[in-house]
Amino acid sequence: MKIENLKYFSYFCSMLINEKTWDFIRQHADDDVRKLALQGVKNAEVDLQMALQQIAGRQTARRKLPSWAEVDGIVYPPHLNMEQCSSEQTARYKAQIVNGQSVNGQLVDLTGGFGVDFYWISQGFQHRSYIEQNEQLCAISSQNFGQLGLDCSICCCDAVSYLTTMPHVDLIYMDPARRNEHGGRTYGIEDCTPNVLELQPLLMEKADRVLLKLSPMLDWRKAVEDLKYVNEVHIVSVDNECKELLLLLDKVHTDLRVVCVNFNKDGEQLFEASERNGLSLGEKRRFAIGETAFLYEPNASIMKAGCFEEVEQRFPVQQISQNSHLFLSSVEIEDFPGRKFQILSVSSMNKQELRIALKDIERANISVRNFPLSVDQLRKKLKLKDGGYVYIFATTMEDGEHRLFICRKIG
């Protein structure tokens, strides 16, 4: 492991965990951190604050970074860094995006952080450089890369300064900080640190490709307009919560790909559209709701991408209405990228119809889409408790009529 800029090693040496502290960490690995903090420790050689940080970090890693959690000797950063770092799933996905690089390729991660993304992305590269200006994170990562057997170069330095003098590489990865000097959240590309908009010419001069991780709050269409060379947009969700917006910049222009992925307990849901084929995948199928019909709710990544017409063209479904973002089909679609439901009945807001449709139903999971009432207002009106196996989607049809789709979830 090659390490540049050794000034931070004085800190690194001071934060090493002694063996008594490691013993305490291993002994209490599954214990409640809050209770341990109240109990304290009798042995003066045990650094309790560091031990609690490591126990909490490893417990979080079991959920987010299961491969790292199995490795003894991994040092975990403070809670905020653990919550902000990528999960193993999303880091592995980034590695898939850039998997086409040569085995002799060179990677530079200009915003190394805790090193999760760097570790997995770097697996496809022979030369790997980790850049991080925070001394604590740099020290922790150098310790962990050694435990993980990752051979790389480490520089504890400013990303922009390093970028200015670095040689040309195959790939640059950046996850610019989305907090201002006061600790508040920022979302615009120009508000992040470093400012990717200002750096873009230099980034494309220094690398063949650049992979950016940006806030999922951003409008990806505007981001594509603001940045040149964007060839791929990846919108990544975990358990139907949008987590990351990834942009792949490449000097070689191709048709823009928009990839929506959602990771859940059943695996990976993937949906892709492009300028070339995303709008010409077959005509829409129209039908009326019969005895057996199905309702589909796209996952969070597709909702973020807004690829609703592409969904209609890819699958035998039709939108309930333009603003509902719900789809109907007369057949069950096994690989639909989202949740699917069998429709039990459909009702207007007419009291008599509601009485018949909701007969024997005491509780339900309620969602509203393009509907004049909130969930709480509708639940109160329907006099239903929360939960149960029934799902009710309240929406407005193309003709302006309000409808309730009463369903049961499939799968």
Please give the structural blueprint.
Layout: E1 2-4, H1 9-15, H2 19-27, H3 33-39, H4 48-64, H5 66-69, H6 79-84, H7 88-97, E2 106-109, H8 116-121, E3 127-131, H9 135-148, E4 153-155, H10 159-165, E5 169-174, H11 196-206, E6 207-214, H12 220-226, E7 230-238, E8 241-250, E9 257-264, E10 267-274, E11 294-298, H13 300-305, H14 308-314, E12 318-319, E13 327-329, E14 338-347, H15 351-357, E15 363-369, H16 375-382, E16 385-396, E17 402-410
Parallel strand pairs: 1-4, 2-3, 2-5, 3-4, 5-6, 7-9, 15-16
Antiparallel strand pairs: 6-8, 7-8, 9-10, 11-13, 11-14, 12-13, 14-17, 16-17
Helix pairs in contact: 2-4
* Strand order in space, largest sheet: 1-4-3-2-5-6-8-7-9-10
* Rg over alpha carbons: 25 Å
Major beta-sheet overview: 10 strands, mixed
The span between the termini is 48 Å
Q: How many β-strand stretches?
A: 17
Q: In percent terms, what proportion of residues is strand?
A: 25-35%
Number of helices: 16
Shape: globular
Structural class: alpha/beta
- Which parts are unreliable, with pLDDT below 50 for 5 consecutive residues or more? 276-290
The portion of residues assigned to helices is 25-40%
Mean pLDDT: 87
Structure report:
It is built from 16 helices and 17 strands. Strand 2 (106-109), helix 8 (116-121) and strand 3 (127-131) form a beta-alpha-beta unit. The chain starts with a strand and ends with a strand. The chain has a 10-stranded mixed β-sheet. It has a 7-stranded mixed β-sheet with strand order 12-13-11-14-17-16-15. Helix 2 (19-27) crosses helix 4 (48-64). The longest helix is centred in the N-terminal third of the chain and has 17 residues, at 48-64. 32% of the residues lie in helices and 27% in strands. The chain has 411 residues and is of the alpha/beta class.
